[in-house]
Design brief:
single chain, globular, two-stranded antiparallel sheet, 7 helices, 240 residues, mainly alpha
Length: 240
């Protein structure tokens, strides 16, 4: 067997289902983080029983980032999860820079100009969406950096405390719910204060908390499936 074949075989052997799961979790985390940042500028009304609350459209996508970090914490440990959180913050900063370029490149660089089909009306609509998104991106970076780190630390604490007990469901939910409440308070206050009435701020925080708790409850089966696939267990194995 030549060197190239040996190298190819070596790479194939190392590409395990655990590695594939890590790629999936990181991909889920990054995609959800970007989608949440871009779509949170749109506010939606959720009618839950007799209660009507305002919810940013990116709330569900953001909730999926916690599924990803909790899965990484469970399978690979705290340091991997914190590393993904740090990279996520860098990617959000890069996204903000690229959005600023798209908004104002023609005004900054004399050698760039819009095409004839790009009218002032289209530019105004473009700016109205993405300029608001930039404020939300900054608010999201602040809220995300704090709450995601808290999520990882809480999850790791209960993982160590409950070692040998079947409490993955507990640490997944308690870490996600606590950090999501913290995230909602920081994000909504920093992102919308001064742009909507105070009553709407309260409704937004309440709405985000309700939806994120529901997402946390529904992602519990998902984290078991992800862990079981990565570790080669039966998919419905509820141990650990």
């Amino acid at each position: 067997m030549d060197d190239q074949s040996e190298q190819s075989l070596h790479l194939d052997v190392r590409l395990t289902r655990k590695t594939m799961t890590l790629f999936f979790c990181i991909g889920l985390f990054m995609v959800s983080l970007v989608i949440a940042a871009l779509t949170s500028v749109k506010l939606e009304q959720f009618h839950i029983g007799g209660l009507t609350v305002l919810v940013p459209a990116g709330t569900i996508a953001f909730g999926l980032t916690y599924l990803a970090t909790d899965a990484i914490s469970e399978i690979w440990g705290r340091n991997y999860a914190l590393c993904v959180v740090l990279v996520g913050m860098v990617m959000r900063l890069l996204m903000m820079v690229l959005i600023l370029y798209a908004l104002y490149a023609e005004q900054v660089f004399p050698f760039i100009s819009p095409t004839e089909g790009w009218t002032e009306e289209r530019q105004a609509a473009f700016v109205s969406v993405f300029q608001a998104g930039n404020r939300l991106n900054i608010a999201g970076m602040l809220a995300f950096g704090i709450s995601a780190s808290v999520d990882v630390l809480i999850f790791h604490y209960f993982q160590k405390r409950d070692a040998g007990k079947n409490r993955l469901w507990f640490r997944n939910n308690i870490s996600t719910i606590a950090s999501q409440i913290l995230n909602s308070i920081i994000f909504i206050s920093a992102g919308f204060l001064g742009t909507v009435p105070l009553a709407a701020i309260g409704s937004l925080i309440l709405g985000q908390v309700i939806i994120k708790i529901l997402v946390a409850a529904f992602d519990t089966p998902a984290i078991y499936l992800i862990r079981n696939f990565a570790e080669g267990r039966r998919l419905l194995d509820l141990r650990g």
